[in-house]
């Protein structure tokens, strides 16, 4: 294992401390229990959004704390759910009286610990669970579909509604709509290496890819030979479109997400392939996002997310955001 | 070789086309000859900044075209200098009458082709050459020091001056000051693979790193065993500080740049180590930048850049910028 690391016990603490220093204009980092919160206190009457999950998917979620997106993020150890006391402490720190909405990716550990954190928190709160990965039902760490890259879109879009006065109920409803309107599938060329494990999560041949991989390296639909980008992208889109069935006149957001170790040139090539294939099927691409947002450490690979957008979703996608990893309009 | 690619001949064209579509609100992509330019024509009287170089370092340079930074970027094939007709065409396209400043990284091919492009262009123009890499004098592709990550800082800071009415002479002078005030050194854990070559640029052992590596995988100062992050960072900073000799009361920008394949958690850990070491030496860190900005395809590794800042540099660093890869204040 070759990583920038001093010792495994301090890995997360040191990284979070650096993250806090590098973005001290936007966020604060609390270390015990660990959570990232906005530097400026959430304004009175604004619903607070809190997400979190295992580390190793950066910039998700700490990179999305700030105006127009999350109020706090709770990072667990690499690929391990955060503990309930983190969610409790984050909620107590950020809630301005309008309640807390927890945004949770569908993994058994996260579901359990967020639920416990919510029970330990005495204020008004509710949760939404993302499960946008169309690759497989049930997987190594979860029952049902996995929550993956569309979580980024949920956080941006619901973050805007919360910033603009949406109630807890309205925020939950919009989050569930975005999750339902989104489908994602990924492919991996290489494994990642969890620092505490010290060796790759899975073995893969020099000419193989894992089609439908999870963001922790969970198995997908099949292991197969690497194919031309257009073939890979076509197969991913087929699975997503089968699932989402967008109407011809519907507007869509196309999100090409890097798993961490794939160069931007390749992600833009995937984006181009996806645009061509979608156009040939009469699927409109109105908005786009390309880059490393929901990663799996240094894994080489990418996922594609399609999100069907109505006017409410489009408005909240475009609204200003100011976080470490996503910023526009301010 | 496992990459998202259809065929090697179309790799760059397809990637650039996708890049143009994903950021059609900011930029246009011209394919023959290839250059990326701002969507909105450069305003009359504004000096135009044009950079470029081999592809494979994305988001540099195309990701830095837009308000407050570059007017155009000329991408060569992966790790190959762009051809003179690209620079000529880009200059003819963007020059609003106030002249063109070419920003060139110090590699023999880039120097030669930018010089030829400048001669072919009939309008007023001048050039600055970046050479911030303190690792080695002379290298595989260059005479003198290599131009690496500080080029990003030059483009941001001079871009602001040009946006705010600086003359060609003033822009050149500021660019040379930023380059002189900056020092960079990098380390690689893995090699990158150039698509046309189809195999890693260099071999490296499972426990080895290349200390002082270039952004094309050129040899650095030495090949050695991987050490703790704090040791690596300390050795890099020693080389930079020996070179820059910042004064105790001077303000500095600390830039931790990923080579492409290293997770953000590790880059923030490197940032934290660097902050601690610099603080212990009485070196002030006032501004920061952490992320993948000047990459080497999927290479695992990072570079550290220190930039000594006076008030002029600080003002132009903070000013608004709106490009695909760097955006704030608008």
Structure description:
The structure is a homodimer of 330-residue chains. Chain A folds into two domains: 16-180, 3-Layer(aba) Sandwich (Rossmann fold), CATH 3.40.50; 182-319, 2-Layer Sandwich (Hypothetical Protein Tm841, Chain: A,domain 3). Chain A has 330 residues and is of the alpha/beta class. The model of chain A has no long low-confidence stretch (mean pLDDT 97). In chain A, the strands form three sheets. Chain A has a six-stranded mixed sheet, with helices on both faces. In chain A, strands 9-8-7-12-10-11 form a six-stranded mixed sheet. Helices cover 32% and strands 25% of the residues of chain A. Chain A has helices at 11-22, 84-94, 108-120, 150-163, 168-180, 229-244, 264-280, 311-318, and strands at 27-31, 34-38, 48-55, 72-78, 100-105, 125-130, 182-188, 208-211, 222-225, 251-258, 284-291, 301-309, 321-322, 327-328. In chain A, strand 1 and strand 2 (34-38) form a beta hairpin. Chains A and B meet through helix 1, helix 6, helix 7 and strand 14 of A and helix 1, helix 6, helix 7 and strand 14 of B.
SSE blueprint:
The structure is a homodimer of 330-residue chains.
Chain A (H helix, E strand, L loop, with lengths): L10 H12 L4 E5 L2 E5 L9 E8 L16 E7 L5 H11 L5 E6 L2 H13 L4 E6 L19 H14 L4 H13 L1 E7 L19 E4 L10 E4 L3 H16 L6 E8 L5 H17 L3 E8 L9 E9 L1 H8 L2 E2 L4 E2 L2
Parallel strand pairs in A: 3-4, 3-5, 5-6, 10-11
Antiparallel strand pairs in A: 1-2, 2-4, 7-8, 7-12, 8-9, 10-12, 13-14
